[in-house]
Amino acid sequence: MTPPGQVLTADDMADVVGRFFQASPLARRWSLEESIDWTSIDPARLTVGQSSAVQFITLIEDHLPGYFALYNDYFPVDDTVDRETFIHNRELYHFSVRWAEEEDTHARVLARYQTAADISDEHTLREALAVEGQKKFQLPYTHPVQYFAYALVQEKATQIYYQQLRDVCEEPVIRDILTKLSRDEARHFTFMANVVERAIQCDGDAVVGPIRDVIAQFRMPLADTMRGYWRWALKIADTAAYDHTDAYEHLIRVIDRAVDAKSSKLDELTGFIASCRTV
Prior knowledge:
This protein is mostly helical. The protein is built from 11 helices and no strands.
């Protein structure tokens, strides 16, 4: 069994983190300064809906400080936890700082794109991002696995939307950016999926209730704090298909992969998740 306060044993967490870094070599990393051909930008090829979608996803990505702080608070690396938990959290921290760095690059490149494409000017954009960025981000979770089940769905839903938005855009620079972002989100999803899979293998039915609660209460970041979020979300869905429940089938696959023979509780969980998908 996993020790209280930890999602995995420290050894298992170290292994999952190691696998993430093995799949993320330096040669595959990118930067907005050197990896984007800004001279190729052609804003005239953007539709109004696509410009609006870029504004929306910039707000979501830029909320990183509040999002990252939540994980740092729940998995602290200081003297507020016992030694065993500290060791577990320190292994996780190796991943989380890379995760935060990559997500911050997403926020920066989208902001740079907005100014380069004349969607917004720097001052106006910074003010708009600050309005949402200063709002506290919270998740109502008490079990460690819930933070990873939530991120699993959120990362996969974001990846899917970036791919679908790219496929309808003709502007070459945003297509390139969205390709890079979706690849990053896919790697982040894989890490979260590996954590959840191992948690199920270690703790079985004990994590069924917590994971079920994540799906029952799921909201994408900013959904409960940004004014007009749902109206805007529907608007960007008219530009490229957007439905976070598209990610649920990927969570079901993780659960199916975790065990050879599911218990009745795990069977009930996958049935519940499937029932929550938008028809």
